[in-house]
Amino acid sequence: MKKISFVIPCYNEQDSLPLLKCELTPICDMLRESYDLEIILVDDGSTDRTWQFIMDWSVEDPIVRGIMLSRNFGHQLALTCGYDHATGDAMISFDADLQDDITVIPRMIEKWEQGTDIVFAVRSQREKDTFFKRATAKLFYAIQQKICKTTAPQNCADFRLMNRSSLNALLTLRERARILRTMVGWCGFKTDTVYFERQERSAGTTKYSLKKMIDLAMDGIFSFTDLPLKIAYYFSGIFLLICLGYLVYNGYCWFSQPHKLESGWLSLVVLITGFNALTLFCLGIMGEYISRIYNEVKQRPLYLVARKTEHSSENE
Questions:
Q1: Are residues 92 and 134 in the same domain?
Q2: The pLDDT of residue 94
Q3: Spatial separation of the C-alpha atoms in residues 51 and 6, rounded to whole Å
Q4: Number of other CB atoms surrounding residue 257 within 10 Å
Q5: pTM of the model
Q6: What residue numbers bound the domain in which 233 lies?
Q7: Helix %, strand %, coil % for the chain, to 5?
Q8: Residue 232 shares a structural domain with residue 150
């Protein structure tokens, strides 16, 4: 019998987990007739009663496995931990907040059984988001698909099914700056999509601040292309042309209309300020790449496991 693993990262989700249990249990009951199942709940350094709920759930149902990280490593690394521990022929990941409509899981499994390697669950619309979030999301996905060589569709997050071969391929990528949706798309394989309407949070509050979303977007771009470095060169060339043009203009004025020449201090200030801004811009781009190189060469573990539920340890 084939086995399906559910991977669910959790961070301070004590209010959402009881609702998740109620929603996921009937789906699992239906699937148990045809598949072996495991539910892997990764506690990403929660400070509430998330881990206690995970332990209680694992006692009630032996298919539930709990993994507690030693601290908060972030959503993408918590997912990576779950992927590392998944033993199924297929793996389905989604968040614990129930904004992902898990009722589409049977459709995802059906596409997998038909031969699809990766099934992306994609939001059908973003009308509930603010204008700012819609605009920035559209810009990010446009940039991602243009320069990052990824097949991941727009408006997909981390709700996906991966078969064992595609998951094993993903797990060979061990870089520290991770945005899994882009990495999965970079891997290739045969893909398909199912669409769902994203729900409002049933309980708790979002853990993704504006800063975290910006950091995630930067990881998705800087980790997959060197185009920003090339852009710095392009800007340098543009500024050089501007300076040459300004030099030619002043030479013309010097010979043809010397009486109209001003002292030039304002022009000098503008040019110096512009060049300094360009220099800092280029240094900032190089700094982003250098910081990523620094984090990679340290070769630290992606995450550290503090403890597991009892039967999780036995299964390892």
A1: yes
A2: 94
A3: 17
A4: 9
A5: 0.72
A6: 227-297
A7: 55, 15, 30
A8: no
Which bin fits 204, alpha (ψ -120 to 50), beta or left (φ > 0)? left
For residue 308, list its beta bridge partners. Answer: 67
**What are 244-280's pLDDT values in tens digits?**
676 677 667 666 765 655 556 556 666 776 677 777 7
Domain count, the chain: 2
In whole angstroms, what is the distance from residue 92 CA to residue 109 CA?
9
According to the model, what pLDDT value does residue 143 have? 63
* DSSP string across 192-219: EEEEEPPPPPSSS-----HHHHHHHHHH
- Residues 186-220: pLDDT tens digits? 888 999 999 888 766 556 555 555 566 666 666 66
Closest CA to 100 of 165, 18, 187, 23: 23
User: Tokens at residue 40, please?
Assistant: 């892997």
Helix or strand holding residue 157 (H, E): strand 156-163
Cα(177)–Cα(216) distance, integer angstroms: 9
What local confidence, expressed as pLDDT, does residue 266 receive?
A: 53
Question: Are the C-beta atoms of 137 and 78 separated by less than 8 Å?
Answer: no
| Residue 199, helix vs strand vs coil | coil
